[in-house]
Specification:
The chain is mainly β and 226 residues long. The chain has a single domain (5-219), classed as SOS response associated peptidase-like (hypothetical protein yedk fold, Alpha-Beta Complex), CATH 3.90.1680.10. It is 11% helix and 31% strand. The chain has helices at residues 11-17, 86-91, 155-158, 173-176, 184-187, and strands spanning 5-7, 30-33, 38-43, 51-55, 73-75, 93-98, 100-106, 113-120, 126-136, 142-151, 164-165, 199-203. The strands form two sheets. A five-stranded antiparallel β-sheet has the order 2-1-7-8-12, with no helix packed on it. It has a five-stranded mixed β-barrel with strand order 3-4-10-9-6. A hairpin with a 6-residue loop joins strand 7 (100-106) and strand 8 (113-120). The longest helix has 7 residues, at 11-17. The radius of gyration is 17 Å and the shape is globular. The relative contact order is 0.20.
Length: 226
Amino acid sequence: MCGRFTLTVDANSIQTAFPWLGVPPQIQPRYNIAPSQPIAVVPNDGANKIDFFIWGLIPFWSKDPKIGSRMINARGETIGEKPSFKAAYKYRRCLILADGFYEWVKTAGQKTKTPHYIQLESQQPFALAGLWETWLAPDGSEVKTATIITTEPNPLVAKLHNRMPLILPEDSYDLWLSTEPKMPKELDHLIAPFPAEEMMHFPVSTTVNSPANESPACILPVQTLL
């Protein structure tokens, strides 16, 4: 599961990492992105620009928007089969921009879990594979939502958790963002863990435990016995 992540860089850094992307200049660094909050998304609508969707997918057919709280992640191995995700997998894919994510680890002899911050060795932003939907609210307004796809962990992340978000390699962006419908057999080869040798992690303070805390303190390394 991926339940918290970050996008701590400014608009210029995002533009450098994704030169083909339209980046809004007002985008602000985020250190503790939580479910139900806006996230930076690039939908496959052909525009190639960042938009902001709510994290937690509400399927277009759902009667109750509360379902979104249970749809922050989509298991990559079954998205082509699950009713909540299979239409979006075929038609509505997106990139979700990030530069790190958190996992919590139980340490022997301690009551509380230790949060770990995971990022690329390069510390550069990356793109998570996601799905998006447009849900029509009772008042007629449109609600754009998204979910993060997860996959089996690589050896580095496996020490912390049994799942990891699906980080897409650069050369897969065009396929993932195609405006054409895609069958699972055309995309399933992308459902794979990112190389462990290109990633790193370190423990951080429990400041990140509360979504109310939104500051660089969330990603500062701390000493641990782990």
